Amino acid sequence: MRKRGTPPNRALRARRPPEISPTVRSLPLAFSLSSDRSMASISGTVTATSVRPRLTSRAPVVKGFSGLKSVSFSIQRNGFPSVRLQAAPRRLRFQVSCAAKPETVQKVCEIVKKQLALSDDTPVSGESKFSTLGADSLDTVEIVMGLEEAFGISVEEESAQSITTVQDAADLIEKLVEAKSS
Amino acid sequence: MLPLHSNSLARRPFASPLPLPPASLPSPRETHIWYVVPDELKDASLLYQYMELLSPCERQSVLRMNGERLQKGALLARALVRTTLARYTDGRLSPKSFKFQKNRFGKPEVEWDKYDLWAPPPLQFNISHTSTMIACGVTLDLPIGIDIEEKQRKTSNNILSLAHRYFSPVEVAYLKTLADPECRQSEFIRLWTLKEAYVKALGRGFSGTPFKDFTIRLEASNSKQVTGELKSDAPSIVVEAVDDPGILMNRWQFALFELNNSHYTAVCMERDVKNPADGENNSLKLEVWRTLPFVEDECVTETDAVKNIIR
Fold first, then answer.
1. Residue ranges of the domains in chain B?
2. Does pLDDT of A37 surpass 80?
3. Which residues of chain A does B59 touch, with a Cβ-Cβ cutoff of 8 Å?
4. Residues of A identified as active-site
């Protein structure tokens, strides 16, 4: 479902309805073994569901040195641009990298869900870390091999080690696919 | 409601947990293993008790896990580590009081406080989990790695494809000799657990020690080891570098067995050179307990729960 707003930056306007994948943070769970699941609050934080539409074109994302917060522009549902702070990745990087296309992220999510036998309604998005999805090292190597097969690429071990999230995998895939075709 | 907030109105009162029965320290050649079967946990109030043991940071990590099953597993894993270690302190340290740090490769270890009149035992530990079991191995002052895998675990990729990619040539050749696919499958899993246990004992983990660089295999009996001691008749598990075949890395000893009829389990422990063995038997000793912390402990060492041991 897409809200009709006019994105201020034409370059970011979707060619088709943007995939809005809700980023649902794990709400603090009631540990009940019965069917009664009420929400509890953890001291300090109750996080809300946030909706972050994916950028459908290759918008540059500038990432700074680890430790500095980087800034990315994202378009919220109502079409107003907003500045969203996100923590810089832990590895030292100062480069302009392009976020992968949503289709790539989606395909990675599918492969990951299949490997980890997650139900269809399990929320998996670009931000999902393999470890929090319950992947062990054998799962991770199987996922890498599955991605290689699906995208016709070959991932080197050093690169494979740096993949911790779905987004990492998608970004690497696109880089390799592009390198292959150039 | 989960009563994590101390002044939460919904706090459910529960009796203080039963004290953990103290355990004797592992001897120099021993690994102690404590394992939990998550499905055995039927009492929801236990989860609250376990949650109380964790640091705020650990709680956050638990709750970041995707879904209730994974959160429960992560919670049990932390509770298992803390309660297990506490058992060896003769009642002086509570499970809640432990602090942890990571070594430079990211391996978790205990951060011991300094006490005036008591030296805490230099315990080392390692954990491994699957969705149906969590195991914690403990030694006295010796690096240890443990890995468990469900016996029934299936791989999405072809075994030989995986092996060609990740195992050493000697290991691939071995797997190729196994004609029966089921046999090949289970040997792959067993070899995987051994290799995992080794890299975890080293402390560098999967990413720090490429699987391709070393071979784990059985060494025939009656060979004189570098230590100069004659081994017993049974073949033993050894590790060697691919670049240096024939030079066995004798620092490390292994045990591979089946746990609870459900899991292949591999343990890798550094050999204790400070305390050379008297007599012939130099191999790794195991003591194993099935536990549900604060509820029940059962020593299963000499039972059917621990079988088909290869060292």
1. 30-39+123-310
2. no
3. 42
4. 136
